[in-house]
Specification:
Helix 4 packs antiparallel against helix 5. The protein has two domains: 153 residues, P-loop containing nucleotide triphosphate hydrolases (Rossmann fold); 68 residues, no CATH class. The protein is an alpha/beta fold and 277 residues long. The relative contact order is 0.15. The radius of gyration is 20 Å and the shape is globular. The chain has a six-stranded mixed β-sheet with strand order 6-7-8-3-9-10, sandwiched between helices. It has a four-stranded antiparallel β-sheet with strand order 2-1-4-5, with helices on one face. A two-stranded antiparallel sheet has the order 11-12. Strand 1 and strand 2 form a beta hairpin. The protein contains ten helices and twelve strands. Helices cover 32% and strands 26% of the residues. It is found in: Cell membrane. Its main location: membrane. Keywords: ATP-binding, Cell membrane, Ion transport, Iron, Iron transport, Membrane, Nucleotide-binding, Transport.
Amino acid sequence: MITNTPTYALTTRKLTLAYEGKVVIESLDLAIPTGKITILVGPNGCGKSTLLKGLGRLLKPKQGVVYLESESIAKLSTKAIAKRLGLLPQSPSAPEGLTVRDLVAQGRYPHQGWLQQWSHEDEKQVDWALSMTQMQEFAHCALDNLSGGQRQRAWIAMALAQNTDILLLDEPTTYLDLAHQIEVLDLLHDLNEQQGKTIVMVLHDLNQACRFGDYLVAIKGGAVYDQGHPERVMTETMVQNVFGLESRIINDPVANTPLCIPISRKSSGKVGAGYQS
């Protein structure tokens, strides 16, 4: 049974979420450990993004409760949530003509008020976020003129500028080439290691999920199929049952984490032969 203790940054109790009238997540109990990187994995349409929206209160539950630490998230003000929890949805949009710096500055809005306007601390956080995402040289460029990967890094910078203890990111490596994917994931790892940020993200790449995640949540059909450390969750049985794919799980020689080798119909004979004694 899940209990609301400080060891969990977010918990759900019997959470049911519907999208466009269709139930996507049903009666789900989940605990997100504080100070860890939790990664949601599963096939397209299984409910990963919907769950992330529910955790960030972008989607109102049909039933059940989401707790931010020990408080029901439904009872908190939007501003109070935004000071503690940052959320980067999949394929976000911004007004036409907005510059990168203007976008990143929006991450500081939760810290503004009638008596506290733009401050030196706000300026410092924006500069830091631009630097961490290597977007300083694009600070005054219009977002519309950037490549998909550059735009994605600008949005990540905005989430970082918000300076929350919890970050929710829906496919943060979308549109990024492999080198920039690793840069972003290394950055998130550093934020977790050095600043203790709790990070929850959706990733499609199972091997990156194992390499960068402390905790995996495998979702199938709107329910949790399994959850725990990558070494326990990432099994050939899980990949078969959740993704409908035959695979071999071996040890990653670089990261010493599970490495998933998918087996296609074209290669199954060759791979199978390699595993015969």
